[in-house]
Please model this.
Amino acid sequence: MPRTPPPTPFGSILDVPGIEVGHHQRRGRGWETGTTVLSAPHGATPGVDVRGGGPGTRETDALEPHNLVDTIHAICLTGGSAYGLSAADGVMEVLESRQLGVPVTGGVVPVVPTAVIFDLGRGGVFGNRPDASFGARATRNASPTAHRWGSVGAGTGARAAVLQGGIGTASAVVDTPTGAHLTVGAVAVVNAHGSVVDPATGRLWEAPARTRPRGPELRALRNALETPADAARGRRLNTTIGVVATDAAMTKAEAGKLASVAHNGLARAVRPSHSLFDGDTVFALATGEQQITADATRFEVPATYPGALNALFAAAADVFALACTHAILSATSLGAAAYADLCPTVAAANGVPPPTHR
Model:
């Protein structure tokens, strides 16, 4: 199926109707960490696929297709390693105040699937990590309008091997045989053990533009990639996490498959991925704003429903790969050198503004 390019080089998960994003972070005075919340105020069908050998997650079992919960209202991505899982408590508090969650006698119980990255001590103080207040503030900051990306929210303390990591986004529109125009978007927090850069050329593996660094930019990048021993040890404590979302109506099983296929995009953008040192986790959200096909028999018409699903899955892998790339291009140098600061010509060719304008 043809995929319509987004209005910007990457697009945004906010192009998916029904999705909102909020960040909260702290930098300086021993801090370099943050939290990002993806909110679906009207609810969404969830899915998840965990593939890394060292994941840090919460409420992922609830998203299995054979389990009860079929609608959630938020996903939390956060720094802080296992300690950071407490950020979800703040998300729950805000959702409860809005009466969003699983209805039970006397109130609601919000289900907030959460995944973490390891960024402990990157600001200089090991004990400075997200707590419930981070989750609450990120939830209250959530909106459907444009956001900053890169070294914000859960991407604040991220690293991509020896480069500055970050949080990025992308989207695409899938045109189905039945005339539906389905939007799929992704958010990725790249804190990867693997490399995002082709060492032979200095080009990001999945950068949309074919431009690659040359001359002084290439030399600066290669100098940064000369990994000191302490940085190499730090690469054992990494992870890439994210969310892929669509406005299509899906079952939990289909949403789980959407999350699963998005890992293909991660594997293209970060090499290697899914190692024993990674906690690679991808969530999925289907807001149900559009039907994939009007045909009620679904699989009796292979050219429509399954074909549209396959196109949506393929687009999910593409946008997740682009979101990983956008995360690296949008990052600014904090505790490590940012790719866009080393190679501004390449960043500009890919539609990312200079650091001072982000």
User: Anything to note?
Assistant: The chain is about 25% helix and 25% strand. The helical segments are 87-97, 132-141, 215-225, 229-234, 252-269, 305-330, 339-342, 344-349. The CA atoms of residues 121 and 197 lie 25 Å apart. The chain has one domain: 3-350.
